[in-house]
Amino acid sequence: MHWQEKLINAVRERPCLWDKFHKDYMNKNIKTNNWKDVSKEMITLIGDHSFDEKTCATKYRNLRDHYMKLKKDHLNLPSGSSPKTPPKWPFFQLFGFVNKRSNAESSIDDNMPQDNSIPESEIENVAAISQQPVAKRRKKETVISDIDLELKKIEQSLAAVQEKDEHDHFGNSVAVQLKKLTSHEAALARIEIEKVFLSFKSTSKIAVSDL
Length: 211
Hints:
- This protein is mainly alpha-helical.
- It has seven helices and no strands.
- It has helices spanning about 5-10, 30-45, 55-75, 125-130, 130-160, 165-180, 185-210.
């Protein structure tokens, strides 16, 4: 399973991060904690510690924007040109959850509620119907802009909270060096690093016991 699929699934399981009508959608603390949970889940699943909260939020936004672009292009295909088969992007179907009625982006959903109180005889011509997708696209663009703004605010909040000290910088330096190695070499290097820490802890315990 690709990391993209794992990230999409992790976000999908936390509606407050994408459902504008969720009771906690406007609660920054809850959303921040949920992004932290997404980060922990991604690090556990793929073993890549670069997936911090800010990275997860940014990567998800990029994936979601790509999905929305593909869907927009898909819906705008000429009706008589060719059958509208789903885009070939492997993660397209995974974003089906953003089309739920409760989602703010449901403006492009086929399951939008229908107003049955309007008789079909009042629909004068096809031109009037063709104007509806334009309104939907405008609403969708407004909603996407709102969600982007919320994600940017979360990223800024996470960046402000995550003040790095000298240990963080050293850890980042080690991470950069590990990424230059092969998977096997990196695994061996991590083992050696762990040995150093274990050795240091053992030495510290002996020194304390001698006091």
